[in-house]
Design brief:
The chain is an all-beta fold. About 0% of the residues lie in helices and about 65% in strands. A hairpin with a 3-residue loop joins β6 (about 50) and β7 (about 55-60).
Length: about 70
């Protein structure tokens, strides 16, 4: 079972996701601004942006907190 929670405060979008064992997930966030920073579990991460979303990438099973500051 995939579990997801979202907190969208001004300037900060947080996604908490749990990916089940033996599973991978493609994760993307809505593009909130042209300039942004991404962290996954507190570590800075690279992400690609497109017209409307930010591609975080493929995550393995586990629990993640993905934060986008903009």
């Amino acid at each position: 079972e995939v579990k997801v929670s979202i907190d969208n405060a001004p300037g900060c979008y947080k996604l908490k996701v749990t990916i089940p064992a033996n599973t991978k997930a493609q994760v993307s966030l809505p593009l909130m601004a042209k300039r942004f920073g991404i962290s996954i579990n507190g570590a800075l991460a690279k992400a690609k942006s497109s017209d409307r979303r930010v591609e975080v990438g493929t995550l393995q099973s586990g629990t993640y907190e993905i934060v986008m500051n903009y």
